[in-house]
C-alpha cells in the first residue's frame, strides 16, 4: 500500500455555470479548473499612492470612458429588449465608470497555478476549521433549519461559506453593475458578462437590493456564498420570509439557504459522502482512475482499494477513483455528491476543499496522504509545450491550448505506458522533463 499523510485548504475564484467566484485574504486564489489557469481572488488590497501616469495616460483613459459611454448607450437598447425597465437601467447606471482595476484583475490572472496541496494547505487551515466551528455554533438554529428543509448537511453549506467569503468576512466591495459593464464592454468574454449584467439589472428591478448595495467580486459574484447574477435569479431563496432574497446583508440566512437549495436542486444525496480518502495497492491498474469508471466501493475493495483504516469503504453508491496529484499523492473514492459540489465550481481542488473542510467541521481529522511536495504546477507555457511534445511523440492531444483535459490525459497515459511509467495521467514537471 502507498503511504498517506495530512493536509489543509481555502477560498478562491473560478467562473462556472453555477454560483461562483470570490475570496478572502485568508484564501488562496481559486484553483484552476482541470488544468486551466486560475482566476484572481477577491482580496483586501491596501491603498497605495498611485504612480505617475505614463505620458498620454489621461487621454487614453478619457478615450476609454468615451467609448464605454457609447457602449452603454447601445447596451441600453439590448437590455430594455430583454425586459429591463428604463428607470431601473438609468438608476443602476448612474455614476458608473469604466473600471480599470477590474480590467487589470481580469488581465493579470496568474501564469502559475497552485498545486492541490498548496491550495489545501490554506483552504482547510486550522484557523478556517476553528472559525467554521464557531460559525456553526453561532448559526446553529439557522443551519439546522436549512438542513431540515433541503437535506444538505450543514457542514457542507458552512464549508462553501468558509471558502467563498471566510464565513462572511470578505464578501467583496466592488460595485457589481460597474464591474460587469466594464467586462461586457471589454469583449473578451463579452457575451457571458453581458448576460450577467442583464441578470443583475433584473435583480435590482425585482427589488431584492439597490444598485448601491449590490457589491461583490470584481468578476460579478455576490454575497456570503458568491452567487453570480444568473444563478441568483434562478436559485436564490427567501428563507427569512421578508420578501427579499438578500445575500448581501450581514445576516447570512438567505445566502446559506440559497446555497443549500442550489445543491439540492442538482441532486444532493443526504448522508452520502462527497468522497473518502483511500489506500491504493501498488498493483492497481491506474487507467481505471477515471470519472468514467464507476464501481461500488465493495467492488473497488476486491481490487485492493480500502479506507485509511484498512477496511472496505461502505457502499454509499457508485464511486470513481480520483488521483488529484497522480499516483504519488492522495487517492479518493468520490461519489455523486462530488459532482453536485462541482456544479458550484468545476475545479477538483475546490470540490476536495469543500468536502474536506466539511469533514473537518464535522469532527474528522486531517487527510493522511503524502503529497509530492518537491513538485510544482506547470505554467501555461509548459502545459502547451507538453502538449506539443506529446503530439510529436505520436500521442496526439488534439490541440495545443494549455488545458489538461481528457484528451491530454489520454495522451499522457499513452506516453507513460510506452515509457514503462505508471499511467496515472498526471501532468507533472517530471513528465515534461522526460518528454524533453
Tell me about this structure.
The chain is mainly alpha-helical. Mean pLDDT is 86; it is low at 1-61. Helix 4 (116-123) packs parallel to helix 14 (348-361). The protein contains 17 helices and seven strands. A four-stranded antiparallel sheet has the order 4-3-7-5. It has a two-stranded antiparallel sheet with strand order 1-2. The two termini are 31 Å apart. The protein is 44% helix and 5% strand. It is globular, with a radius of gyration of 23 Å.
Write the layout of secondary structure elements.
Layout: H1 57-81, H2 86-92, H3 100-107, H4 116-123, H5 126-138, H6 140-150, H7 154-165, E1 174-175, H8 176-186, H9 190-206, E2 215-216, H10 229-235, H11 253-265, E3 275-279, H12 297-302, E4 306-307, E5 320-322, E6 324-327, E7 331-334, H13 336-342, H14 348-361, H15 380-392, H16 406-418, H17 429-435
Antiparallel strand pairs: 1-2, 3-4, 3-7, 5-7
Q: Detail the poorly predicted runs.
A: 1-61
Strand content: 5-15%
Q: What's the story with the biggest beta sheet?
A: 4 strands, antiparallel
- Look at the structure and give the mean pLDDT: 86
By DSSP, the count of extended strands is 7
Task: Summarize the helix and strand pattern as letters.
Answer: HHHHHHHEHHEHHEHEEEEHHHHH
The proportion of residues forming helix, as a percent range, comes to 40-55%
Taking the alpha carbons of the first and last residues, their distance comes to 31 Å
Helix count equals 17
Q: Shape, please?
A: globular
Return Rg in Å. Answer: 23 Å
Which strand order does the major sheet show? 4-3-7-5
Given helix and strand content, the structural type is mainly alpha
Amino acid at each position: 500500500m502507498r503511504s498517506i499523510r495530512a493536509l489543509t485548504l481555502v477560498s478562491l475564484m473560478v467562473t462556472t455555470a453555477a454560483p461562483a467566484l470570490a475570496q478572502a485574504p485568508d484564501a488562496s486564489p481559486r484553483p484552476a479548473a482541470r488544468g486551466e489557469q486560475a482566476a484572481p481572488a477577491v482580496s483586501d488590497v491596501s491603498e497605495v499612492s498611485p504612480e505617475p501616469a505614463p505620458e498620454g495616460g489621461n487621454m487614453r483613459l478619457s478615450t476609454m470612458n468615451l467609448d464605454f459611454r457609447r457602449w452603454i448607450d447601445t447596451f441600453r437598447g439590448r437590455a430594455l429588449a430583454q425586459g429591463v425597465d428604463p428607470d431601473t437601467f438609468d438608476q443602476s447606471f448612474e455614476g458608473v465608470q469604466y473600471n480599470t482595476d477590474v480590467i487589470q484583475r481580469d488581465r493579470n490572472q496568474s501564469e502559475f497555478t497552485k498545486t492541490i496541496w498548496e491550495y489545501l494547505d490554506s483552504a482547510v487551515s486550522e484557523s478556517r476549521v476553528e472559525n467554521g466551528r464557531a460559525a456553526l455554533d453561532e448559526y446553529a438554529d439557522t443551519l439546522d433549519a436549512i438542513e431540515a428543509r433541503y437535506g444538505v448537511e450543514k457542514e457542507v453549506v458552512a464549508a462553501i461559506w468558509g471558502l467563498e467569503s471566510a464565513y462572511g468576512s470578505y464578501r467583496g466591495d466592488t460595485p457589481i453593475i460597474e464591474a460587469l459593464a466594464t467586462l461586457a464592454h471589454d469583449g473578451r468574454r463579452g457575451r457571458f458578462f453581458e448576460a450577467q449584467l442583464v441578470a443583475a439589472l433584473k435583480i435590482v428591478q425585482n427589488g431584492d437590493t439597490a444598485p448601491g448595495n449590490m457589491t461583490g467580486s470584481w468578476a460579478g459574484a455576490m454575497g456570503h456564498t458568491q452567487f453570480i447574477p444568473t444563478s441568483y435569479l434562478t436559485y436564490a431563496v427567501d428563507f427569512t420570509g421578508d420578501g427579499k432574497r438578500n445575500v448581501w446583508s450581514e445576516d447570512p440566512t438567505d445566502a446559506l439557504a440559497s446555497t443549500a437549495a442550489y445543491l439540492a436542486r442538482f441532486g444532493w444525496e443526504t448522508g452520502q459522502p462527497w468522497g473518502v480518502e483511500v489506500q491504493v495497492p501498488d498493483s492497481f491498474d491506474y487507467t481505471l482512475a477515471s470519472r468514467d469508471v464507476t464501481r461500488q466501493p465493495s467492488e473497488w475493495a476486491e481490487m485492493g482499494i480500502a479506507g485509511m483504516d484498512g477496511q472496505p469503504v461502505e457502499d454509499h453508491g457508485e464511486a470513481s477513483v480520483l488521483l488529484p496529484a497522480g499516483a504519488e499523492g492522495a487517492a479518493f473514492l468520490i461519489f455523486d455528491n462530488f459532482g453536485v459540489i462541482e456544479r458550484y465550481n468545476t475545479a477538483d481542488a475546490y470540490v476536495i476543499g469543500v468536502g474536506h473542510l466539511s469533514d473537518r467541521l464535522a469532527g474528522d481529522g486531517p487527510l493522511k496522504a503524502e503529497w509530492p511536495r518537491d513538485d510544482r504546477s506547470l505554467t501555461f507555457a509548459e502545459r502547451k509545450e507538453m502538449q506539443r511534445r506529446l503530439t510529436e511523440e505520436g500521442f496526439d492531444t488534439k490541440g495545443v491550448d494549455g488545458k489538461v483535459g481528457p484528451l491530454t490525459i489520454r495522451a499522457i497515459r499513452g506516453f507513460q505506458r510506452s515509457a514503462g511509467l505508471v499511467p496515472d495521467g498526471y501532468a507533472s514537471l517530471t513528465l515534461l522533463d522526460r518528454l524533453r
